[in-house]
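Hi,

I'm pasting everything inline rather than attaching a file, because the server keeps stripping attachments. The sequence lines come first, and each chain or strand is labelled.
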Amino acid sequence: MRLPHGEGLVGLAATTGQPVVTARAREHPQYKYFPETGEERFDSFMAVPMIVQGATIGVLAVQTIEPREFDSNEVEIFRTCAQLIAPVVINAQLLALVETSDEEASQAAAEREALEGRASDREEQNIEHRGIPTSRGIAIGTIYRLETPLDLERLHYTPNSDPEREVQELMDAIGEARRVLDGMREKLGSKFGLDLAAVFQTHIQILEDKGFVTKLRKEALATGNALAALTNVIGTYRKTFQRMSDPYFRERVTDIEDVGQRVMESLLGERHHTTPLSEGAIVVASNLLPGMFARLEIEKIAAIVSEHGGPTSHGAIFARTLEVPAVTGIPGIQAAVRSGETAIVDGGEGLIILSPDEGLLYEYRRAQQRYTVSIEHLDALRDRPAETRDGRAIRLTANVGLVSDLRLVDQHGADGVGLFRTEMLAFAHRGFPGEEEQAELYEHVAKSMAPRLVTIRTLDLGGDKEMPNVGMRLEDNPQLGCRSIRLSLANQGIFKAQLRAIYRASAAGNVRLMLPMITSIDEVRSAKALIAEAIQDLERAGIPYDKNVPVGLMIEVPAAAITADALARECDFFSIGTNDLTQYTLAVDRGNENVAHIYDPLHPAVLALIDASVRAASRANIPISVCGEMSSNPLAVPLLVGLGIQELSSTPSAVPLVKEIIRELDFGDLEVDAREAQKAGTAAAVHQIGAARLRDAGLLEHPDIGPWLRTLVDKVFPSR
Ligand code: PEP
Ligand code: MG
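And the predicted assembly:
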């Protein structure tokens, strides 16, 4: 049956984006009877919208025969169900959305041929192409152009004479691909953590999609060629997805192509497997696909460069985790390179240089060596204590977002996790995982870090971290909108599931729970009431947990810093999120490059708020840390320590650097610096105080970090 948008109770839920709940549906003014449904047997009705990226993509409804009231808890649970189901629905809808257009395909092929002609003729050197910096590091190697097997012209395939047999071969290939995916999910899960392996679930879902399989079947019958059927069907899906204006949906092309390649490999068997990689290969691909890491010999890859894919795609997450330098988003790069030519990739700069001359190679080899040696050298010193020369100990912890990052915590010698960003799980999953999966992941983190502390922050989505299917709506001003703790409090079902998962993990290690973006005591009390309910749920179910999990607040908005005394009475610790604190204090969007020059955590106003928070924490006798990027900033570290901060949580690779700085300083001097900095009228003056301290401590002569610190200090004192 069909009903127009806005009609009936389901339509009401769709247009308002709100649940519709009634014990007697027929008495509702908006009720409309549709005989096709046979709904006259039912009385009570509850409908909740399924929302993805602010758009209602469907409505989930439940009815009962007996009239009954639905309480707020039931509505909340039902909303959570709808949010969890929404991505499955959107996947299915996307898969069903396919139409054909051949014109675009032939145009793309012509463009590609023209570019390839140019690449093979050229004699130029030092050809630079810039894209999106996706994973840091420098690589020098030989280009390996990863052909897309979906490009039929490059393959030789002889179909059977009987179309039915072609259909069967294709179905067998799908079954085989499914088995490979299952195996890969398991293999990656045990190697890098379940969160990364979850990516393959999306691919399995595509292979199981009825519409997809039916289309393949029909096309194979029509063409009598399994390979052509696969290429055509994947091609139509690709075109449909690429036409979508929303980048989230456009990125789904990656998943479809990865699945297509996998089926094709199964179909073609051993005969057509890609040629083996040579050592130190710079892989130039159409897209940075997660499957590449499993399929290619990862230890031979020096870097990856791709035409498509964004920095938050699954492939990008994999590249960073595996520390493979990567650049994405260079259209036409596959046609512009020649297989076997030398190239330099600078992942941090988002740069690839083709056929570099000797001078450039020499320069980059040195940069590469410096980078590697200093990292190795510092890592070798990881067991030294982080203590100032006059004996003030500072705890150095790490910010992580994926289970696989934990090995970096050990490698760089961090003393536990000061910030576990749980929203990263949601990105890796393309949705937020359920309670069981979360509990398993958090338990793993707690166990592997024990007895070190792990600070798990509840979901912090919104603002610049857009995420579909967790009840987020598109807002005009998302940084000031329903983000972070506000979103959690508005989606209590999801929030409570996360709280239970965190408490379940507390039995396995040393866990702290942290609430982001707190602006008022009311929010803290509401969150704590839900924590109490989550604990009760565990008690009732007889699930063990730690009764003394410290509950802390993030100081990320001026309101929290200014009322820190009152907030301190409500919690067990503070952690200052200077990324947001700077944004909200200086009214500068942290993601807007047009105002980036005003964004400065060393502004005296930000320091004053940090100072107020430290003092409040000290009066309440609770610990306080800093977990924004400021704790990785060499100019800021002396001032933060001087202000009384005793825990700095930073990017894992920055931990050794921060430690070296702290070990060369005297706390007594830093206290004086911090007082002076607060009196300074400008951020520039504060930079000078920090820079002068590094210089006076002799840190510019440090063999590993000296060169970098010198460039920072030179910017502060340009005339030196
Ligand atoms: C911060 O705001 O400083 C912080 C640590 O949180 P995030 O960067 O994840 O917003
Ligand atoms: Mg923040």
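DSSP finds 29 helices and 19 strands in the chain.

If the labels don't parse on your end, tell me and I'll reformat.
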